[in-house]
Design goal:
Blueprint (H helix, E strand, L loop, with lengths): L17 E10 L4 E7 L11 E6 L11 E6 L8 E7 L7 H4 L7 E4 L17 E7 L4 H6 L3 H6 L2 E8 L8 H5 L9 H7 E7 L10 H6 L2 H5 L12 E7 L1 H13 L13 E5 L4
Parallel strand pairs: 7-8, 7-10, 8-9, 10-11
Antiparallel strand pairs: 1-2, 1-6, 2-5, 3-4, 3-6
Bound molecules: adenosine-2'-5'-diphosphate.
Length: about 280
């Protein structure tokens, strides 16, 4: 009999992030771009959730850790690729580099998508208002391409607020392309309203969400009989700057809507659009 020394095997350390490949990049303006990456088979998420995105450290520059930021996934939960809509911040630790990515480059992807801008966090209702300013449109690209949104609500309103007309990224998607989507095309034609508004130059609709709500214009534009949100039937999700969320949420509350969460679904949910 031979004695064998048992050497304990060290636990295999799991990589903290997936390493995925860039599939395409689209530049909208000098401040906005979108990109898509491959999706690892193990990654599960709900439409509207966010995940960490980053770039590998440049060892030649002495970088030890990757820089990561939270990004809403702009694809619906069943999509084969993962799409993101990003701002370009000239001095931003991540986006100053991320804006330079090209097809085939590697991007780090967090393993735990999460978030509150999901259909499960709002109570059943008739109308779902999705309010997004700037890149705060991203989660609505996911939710509005998910058939579940149309199964749960009679009407889905994607409201996009920007400073300048050229920042209305995805306008072609919402005004035309989505109507040919094999999964939600018919539902989008019948149930989806795209509601863009511009604040700092002439456009067919102007003004902040807060002003459009307070004046009642949004309700008239949508052909509704009401001049306020109706807590029985209206649900909302907010994504954008802190100031927009704070002011719009205060209005929703004044109209009798209550904030919800994953643990306690309500009439509206909020999440800050991520920058950096
Ligand atoms: P405005 O041009 O009047 O500031 P930003 O790029 O600063 O995030 O702004 C995106 C859009 O959100 C702009 O149209 C901006 O309008 C609007 N906005 C900014 N702050 C608020 C707020 N507190 N409430 C409603 N809309 C806001």
């Amino acid at each position: 009999m031979t004695a064998t020394a048992t050497v304990p095997t060290p636990p295999v350390k799991e990589a903290p992030h997936h390493v995925e490949k860039v599939l395409w990049v689209k530049h909208w303006t000098d401040r906005l771009f979108s990109f898509a990456i491959t999706r690892p088979a193990s990654l599960r998420f709900r439409s509207g959730e966010f995940v960490m995105i980053g770039l590998p450290p440049r060892e030649e520059l002495g970088e030890k850790k990757p820089i990561l930021r939270a990004y809403s996934v702009a694809s619906p939960h069943f999509a084969e690729e993962l799409e993101f809509f990003s701002i370009k911040v000239p001095d931003g630790p991540l986006t100053s580099r991320l804006q330079l990515i090209q097809e085939g480059d590697e991007v780090l992807l967090g393993k735990k998508p999460t978030g509150t801008l999901v259909l499960d966090a709002v109570r059943p209702g008739k109308r779902l208002f999705l309010f997004g300013t700037g890149t705060g449109l991203a989660p609505w690209l996911s939710v509005a391409r998910d058939p579940d949104a149309y199964a749960r609500f009679e009407r889905v309103i994607v409201a996009h607020g920007v400073r300048e007309v050229q920042e209305l990224a995805y306008r072609d998607l919402f005004t035309a392309e989505i109507h040919d989507d094999p999964l939600v095309g018919d539902e989008a034609k019948a149930q989806l309203t795209y509601y863009p508004t511009v604040t700092r130059e002439p456009f067919e609709r102007q003004g902040r969400f807060t002003d459009l709500i307070t004046s009642g214009q949004i309700f008239r534009d949508l052909g509704l009989d009401q001049v306020k949100f109706d807590p029985e039937h209206d649900r909302a999700m907010l994504c954008g700057s802190m100031a927009m969320i704070k002011d719009t949420a205060a209005l929703l509350e004044a109209h009798g809507l209550k904030e919800g969460s994953n643990a306690d679904p309500g009439d509206f949910v909020i999440e800050r659009a991520f920058v950096g």
